[in-house]
Design goal:
This is Lon N-terminal domain-containing protein. With 332 residues, this protein is α+β, with helices and mostly antiparallel strands. 51% of the residues lie in helices and 18% in strands. It has 2 domains: 166 residues, Archaeosine Trna-guanine Transglycosylase, Chain: A, domain 4 (Roll); 131 residues, Up-down Bundle (Methane Monooxygenase Hydroxylase, Chain G, domain 1), CATH 1.20.58.1480. It has a 5-stranded mixed β-barrel with strand order 2-6-7-8-9. Strands 4-5 form a two-stranded antiparallel sheet. The longest helix is centred in the last third of the chain and has 52 residues. The relative contact order is 0.10.
């Protein structure tokens, strides 16, 4: 089970670590090596499988590691705890591929979960997308691990099987022209669509407001990650954004995602409005009927239920007696 949320301090934390590293390097002499650890120094990481969504840089995600029978992975949790104690509290977060054994329609829910957490070594490695995220292990509470995404990684080879440790390359975005008109226009359209969604969907409000408040800290690559990260897009679409190193192409994919979210938001708003109007109409008719009954009763035009029932009974009795007496009438 995983959650997903934008973390304001995610990028700030990454920048802080890099700044400290640069500052330490500048102060050290040529004979002194800086001891400040930087995220990009992680070349071997613990591979943490994510079943639901990839983790984007700048976001945080709570992940539950199974430690209780019949599904348990105590070695993974122990390795995470040990990593957090060290100078390099990082792991690699990699999305699980869509395979037949992860499809609930093929295997029952409990068995599916069991299969996922029983995968080890090469078998698990083959089921992970090779591009993932360097994740800072922010905190561990029992079986709940909080991760903060930093940068993109690519798995190069396996180091150990249980728990799975892998060697990684740190990925950088391809060079791009910040003044390119097409990139600018695409980014503006993403921002405009996010603003439109804000008007129709309250669930996006906190995320988008955070984004607009920190717009100065966002560049085009982060904008693309942000739009995809807060969306309800499926995990493969999000993984596509994570794997794309071409900034313009990444923005295009994100734009498609947020446009789709906008359409869904409009449909939801339309459905909610129709239901609200129906309920309001029924409530209005009910209130008007009650008011009409009260007015008629006040004017003596309508009796209450007990009086009306008594009157109806008396009238029916009168008709019965009239019918009986009619049978005894004789004509000369």
């Amino acid at each position: 089970m995983t959650g997903y949320r934008f973390e304001e301090g995610g990028w700030a934390e990454a920048r802080r670590v890099e700044f400290e590293g640069e500052e330490a390097d500048s102060k050290s002499s040529s004979t002194i090596v800086s001891t400040v650890f930087r995220p990009e120094d992680c070349l071997t990481v613990l591979a943490l499988p994510l079943p639901d969504r990839p983790l984007f840089p700048g976001f945080y995600m709570p992940v539950h590691v199974k430690v209780f029978p019949p599904i348990q992975d105590p070695k993974l949790l122990e390795a995470l705890v040990e990593s957090r104690k060290r100078q390099a509290p990082y792991a690699g977060a990699f999305l699980l591929k869509d395979e037949p054994w992860t499809d609930p329609s093929v295997v029952g829910g409990a068995d599916t979960e069991k299969n996922i957490y029983e995968l080890k070594g090469k078998e698990l490695l083959n089921c992970l997308h090779e591009v993932g995220t360097l994740a800072q292990i922010s905190s561990i509470q029992e079986d709940r691990v909080i991760l903060i995404g930093h940068g993109r990684l690519r798995i190069t080879e396996m180091v150990s099987e249980d728990p799975l440790m892998v060697k990684v390359d740190h990925l950088k975005d391809k060079p791009y022209n910040k003044d390119d008109d097409v990139i600018k226009a695409t980014s503006f359209e993403v921002i405009s669509t996010l603003s439109d969604i804000l008007k129709t969907s309250s669930s996006w409000r906190d995320h988008v407001q955070t984004f607009t408040q920190h717009i100065g800290d966002f560049n085009y690559p982060r904008l693309a990650d942000f739009g995809a990260g807060i969306s309800g897009a499926n995990k493969l679409q999000c993984q596509q954004v994570l794997e794309e190193l071409d900034v313009y192409k990444r923005l295009k994919v994100t734009l498609e995602i947020v446009k789709r979210e906008m359409e869904i938001s409009k449909i939801q708003e339309s459905i909610a409005k129709a239901i609200e109007e129906k309920i309001s109409g029924e409530q209005r008719r009910y209130l008007l009927n009650e008011q009409l009954k009260a007015i008629k009763k006040e004017l003596g035009m309508e009796a209450d239920d007990k009086t009306a029932l008594s009157g109806q009974f008396s009238f029916n009795l009168f008709l019965t007696e009239l019918d009986a007496s009619w049978k005894f009438v004789s004509f000369p």
